[in-house]
Amino acid sequence: MDYSQYDVEDFVADPFFSRWVKRPDDETKCFWENWMTEHPEKSDTVAEAKKILLLLKFPVSEATLQEQQASKAHVMQRINAQPMPEEGSAQPWRQYLSMAAAVSLLLLGAYLVWPRSNAEPYQQYATQFGEQREILLPDSSRIKLNANSSLRFKKDWSDSVAREVWLEGEAFFEILKKPLAADGRFIVHTTQLNVEVLGTTFNVQTRHGETQVVLNTGKVKLQAADQEKGKEIVFLEPGEMGTMRDDRLVKTQVNPVVYSSWKDNRLFFENESIRKIARRLEDSYGYQVIVDKPEWLDYTFTGSCPADDISILLTALAESFDLSVTQSNRQIRIQEADISQ
Question: Rounded to whole angstroms, how far apart are CA atoms 292 and 289?
Fold first, then answer.
C-alpha cells in the first residue's frame, strides 16, 4: 500500500489507519509514527482524516472493500457538489450550511457502510513492507501473512457456519479439517476469487488485478467472486495453480515450493523474469526498482536467497547478467556494469 498517494478519503476508508486513530496499539503506533516522520508533507491530510474518523461513532467496518469504495465515492461526489460561497460574501451562514451538509453526508455514508452495534466484530491483521506475521485462527488453523498484506475474519466461529477470511495481498494457509457433522468448509475471499477448501495447505496471492492460488496438499475449489463475470468452477490438485485475471480462470502445473518458500524465510526463483522479481521486491519490501533498458526485464533467473537479506539476491542478479545492481534507501537500480572497474 502506497500511503504517500492517499488523500483524506483514502485514509478514512483504510482499516489499518482507522485502527491507529480509534484503537491504537503498539503495532499501529510504531508504523504510523515512523511513517509520519518519513512523510511530513502528509501531516495536514492525516490530521484532517483523523478528525473525520473521530466524529464517526460507529463500530469497525465489516463492509466489503467494494462497498466502502462505492459509498465513499458517492459521499465525496455529494460533498464536492456543495456550492462554495464567493469570496467576500455578505452571507457567511451559507458557508456553514454547506459545511454542515457535507459532514452530514459523510456521516450518513459511514452509517450505511458501517454495521450496527449488534454485528459480529471482526479481527483484523496487517503487515508492513518486509514484515511477516503468523496468525492462529479460532479453529486452530494457521495462516502466515506475507509482507504488505491484510487479513480479517469474524472473531466468533460457530460450528453451524463456514469458516471465512478476507485477504488482500498474500498468505499461506494450513487449514484443519472440521468434524464431519459440522460445516467443514473454509473459504478465502479475495476481490476476484472465492477459494473453498476442507483441509489443506495452499498459498494465495492477490495483487495488481490478478489472484493466484497454488495448492501444496489437499484439494480446493475456485470460483469467481462475482458470479456475473464467471460461473466456472475449477478444482485444484497438489502442484497446480489457478490464476484469475481479466475475468478468466486458468489452471497450470507449477512447483508449489517456488510460491510458498517465503513462509520459511526463503525466496525461490525458477526461470523468473526480472520484471516479476522487480514486482515482488516492490510488493513485499516497498522498493522502487528502476531498470535502465526495457529488454532486461525479460531476462530470466533461477536461484534462491534468504527472504530477509535481499542484498544476496541483488549480487546474484548482477553476476548472472553482468550488470550493475545497486541499492540506495528504498530504490534499486539495474544498469550497465562499469567495465573500467
Answer: 10
